[in-house]
Amino acid sequence: MPHAASARVAVRTPGTVRIVGAGLLGASIGHALTALGVDVALDDTSPAQLRLAVDYGAGRAARPDDRPILVVVAVPPDVTADVIEREVGDHPQAVVTDVASVKLAPLHTLRDRGVDLRRYIGSHPLAGRERGGAIAARADLFVGRPWVVCRDEETSASDLLLVEGLALDLGATPLEMTPDEHDRSVALVSHVPQLVASLLASRFVPAPEGLLRLAGQGVRDTTRIAASAPELWVQILGANAEPVVAVLDELAADLAGVADALRAPDAPGARKTVADTIRRGNQGVERLPGKHGQNRRFETIVVMVDDTPGQLGRLFGELGELGVNVEDLRLEHSPGAQFGLAEISVAPSAAGPAVAGLESRGWKIASTAND
User: Fold this and answer.
1) Which residue ranges does the record assign to the ACT domain (predicted)?
2) Domains contained in the chain, CATH given
3) Among 56, 200, 257, 312, which lies 20 to 30 A Cα-Cα from 345?
């Protein structure tokens, strides 16, 4: 049943949408469209996964007489091309898209098979979670996230509008790219970061328990995605191996250079090598889009928050009363401590008034810094 508020929203995806694959992405798309009143027909090779997604409200089970206007293929990369080929043949009246994280490999496979791809448009939402499956699906998973759409010279304007309309209905921002541009881009911003996080986190396995008690928010941030599913990432990395290897080779050379410098830290140029590495990292972080796609810098205020119910809500309420807009938030809990640290990013002009206002209301400020 659509929410009352959603009935007033102009939906760009009319008619039935068939979703093949009721895992995290497929079920999340289903939840978002169902909330908008769209008829969502779910299909999955796993009856248990399908029933779970239906029970959670991601859509209804697909029927043989369905005539969808749009088919979304949300299956693992190693079967994406097979499912696209089947759906193109079974639903010639529909536009078929997929949400696989690699675009070139399935496209080459389909072309080699001679599949008619005039009504197929590859796409990829840059969204996900460390956990998978229908139980982890969320209707807001795509809100504010980029959604790459890979068109070609045979793509009709109406078909393109349907896929881009899907992205917009889900709150995402559609971006047009070629399959090659997409695969090289995600190698840098998604696939290599996954490997780096996993390699760093793997160093914790043999580490003494006492050492790991020193872990703070920095190491948690850099290893958060290391909890991802190995089975899926073996497929993703194998399908996008060439651009991933190119980035890894460059990263390995940089790491070797820093290691060499630290082997002889007093040697001429060693400190410069280390400093340049940190400086280049600063420059790279500054290029990452921030809130609303802006490259803006913020001040970070670290507030001590008692570990009792309602304290975080009170903090946000009082920041609102002070007229302070929170641009970002991170929470850190120290093992054994009865308080947490709320790292709040605000506009530089708001930092001073925020600190003064919070301190006057009894909050303890641990530190402030440029973010």
Assistant:
1) 300-371
2) 10-177 (3.40.50.720), 185-287 (1.10.3660.10), 293-370 (3.30.70.260)
3) 200
